[in-house]
Structures are given as structure tokens and as C-alpha cells.
Amino acid sequence: MSKSLLLVSRHAPCSGSTPRELLDIALAGGAFDLPISLLFLDDGVFQLFTPNFAALEQKNLSANLQALPMFGVEQLYVAERCLRDRGLDSTKAQPAVQCLDDAAISALYASHDLVITL
Amino acid sequence: MQFAIAVFSAPEQASNRRALRFAEAVLAEGHAISRLFFYQAGVHSASSQQVTAQDELDLPRAWHEFVTQHQLDAVVCIAAALRRGQLNQAEAERYNRDGYSVQTPWELSGLGQLHDAAQSADRLICFGGP
Fold this sequence. Notes:
heterodimer, A: Hypothetical Protein Ychn, Chain: A, B: alpha/beta, 5 strands, Sulphur_relay_DsrE/F-like (chain B), DsrEFH-like (chain B)
């Protein structure tokens, strides 16, 4: 049986190539049918609120995020505390993600075999 | 125990040096390294063109010697490497670039190699950040 992988995305969409390179790991793993979960933490939560990529002169990250389910990556989570600290509303997140409190995040880490944080 | 080691930081970051020292310790303790995988700015570890001041630790050279000496499987993510100007001869020819900086023992390959290593090793250890 395949090992489960938790990917933790901690960087803002305007921070450079890191958010995209984290998603590339998710998409590559999804193509191999690996069990992958994705957690948005810290400034990574801003990725869920479709920033103005054109103004940042960056390729749009949203297309990659929307592609996740097509690659079998459907377990998407966000840290409730990180949203609250930044005044963000989880119901407006795109794509839809499951909101987790601190205890649930601990459980999420514990339930996966592998963790990669970028 | 079989270790897969992923390096995400550039040679000028302390975490890159820690990754090398950890990898050395893994072998010194009698364990094995199934693969080293270099991603993000970690791809610069494979550069033969980085020039380090004489009184500083030359990490690309140290990595090269370590990988060569122990005949390790050392994979550099090809997409991350191209984006950062670390090409081998084949990629330099493909994209019409004048020079190249990645040679043996380094292999340019895809992210599937990271997943493959993580799945098959007993432990995946990642080095990133400062």
C-alpha cells in the first residue's frame, strides 16, 4: 500500500515560485495515484483567495489549484487560526477547503506517513 | 535503514550544509541513502560553475565528492533546474544555451523520482529554509 503524504504550503502566492513548486509535487504525486493531502498554513492561506496575478506579473496559480481534484488530490485543508489571524473568511476560499482547528491539524500530521513542507 | 533525503535550499543556506552533514552521518552509522533529491534552490548544489571564496566551505564541490565517493543516486529536479539555469549538456543543446553546469554524477529527472524515493525508503528527511 502506498504511503500517505501530507504537503504543507506555507507561503503567500506573491512570494515567488514556492507555492507553485509545492503544487507541482502534489500534481506529480496525484498522477501516480498516491494518497496526498494538502494543508494551507500561515501565509499559504492567501493562495485560496485568488489574488490579482496579472498585477504580480505571475502565472495564475488558481488553474493549478483547480486542477488538483482532476489529479486525485481531493483532501484540501486550511488552518482556521491562520485564516482568523488574517481576517479571511473560509467560505470564500477557492477551491473549497476543510477548515481545521489546532487539534485537528495535529491529528492530520499524525495520520500521514510522510510530510513535506514548503 | 534506507533514507531518502530531499534538499530544498541553496548551498549558501545553512540547511544545505546540514543536509550534507546529515547524509554523511547516515552512511557513517551504517545506514543507506536510496536517493538524494534536489528541488527548488537546492538544484544549485549540483552546479559545477559556482565559485566559492577560498576560505569558505564549497558545498557544490563537497556534494559532488560525497555523491561520487559513495556512488549515490543523486537526482536534480529538471523543471526546477531549468528555471534556475542549471542545465546539463543535453538540456543546453535542447534549449540552445551556450554552456552547461550539471554533469555526472548528477541526473536531471522529474518529480516522480521524489515520490518514488519517498515511497520506497524507510524515512524521507527534508532540508529547507534558512
